[in-house]
From TrEMBL:
Transmembrane segments: none
SMART domains: Lactamase_B
Name listed for the protein in its UniProt record: UPF0173 metal-dependent hydrolase ACFOUV_01720
PANTHER family the UniProt entry points to: UPF0173 METAL-DEPENDENT HYDROLASE MJ1163 (PTHR43546:SF3), UPF0173 METAL-DEPENDENT HYDROLASE MJ1163-RELATED (PTHR43546)
Protein species of origin: Oceanobacillus longus
The Metallo-beta-lactamase domain, residue ranges: 7-192
Gene Ontology terms for molecular function: hydrolase activity
Amino acid sequence: MKISYHGHSVVKVVTDSHTILIDPFISGNEACDLDADTVKADVILLTHAHNDHVGDTFEIAKRNNALVVAPNELAVYLGGKGLVTHPMHIGGSHEFDFGTVKFTQAFHGSAYTEDNGAVIYGGMPGGILLTVEGKTIYHVGDTALFSDLKMYGEMNDIEVAFIPIGDNFTMGPEDALVAADWINAKVSVPVHYNTFPMIDQDPKAWAGKVKTGEGRVMEIGEAMEL
């Protein structure tokens, strides 16, 4: 299995049989190295409904006939737009042919803004525990620091955690260090930073302060093997 990072909160997981995209914010994301018109995906996982996470889901899913797994209200909305969806909710898990998905809590908002300015409620935001080929990846999603992250770390043997550090809209570096300690992943990777000025951070400084496991900055397009 190969996991790669593509700016903001975009993560790609490639297995022997599937390509999985998480929060594919590509168009309008200058940090992303992917091309929304050509990127392949069998599955798209969405943590919540904000436009900088739903991103290019419509176009990618239609072109690839990809399955979209998302919180219930967001999945219903996307299904109404013609996408193939699987709705889930916080605490629920489901075993798919590509692996197991479990949604965790996240303390944030979740609404999609259409081109005409209409705001569509997207249900509760979440994090995603993705278990593939016996390895668990935790995409924490957009969230504040909350104590149940410690419980998730205790309940799961997490290989890699993608943790937001940008501040203002999510937890900042100091809170994210606590989160990394609680989650107890073998590798903690900072995400959701430097996409725009309000969330500018120094990811290398953050990674160097991670005390539990390894803090690792993944450059845009960089991949790791699990």
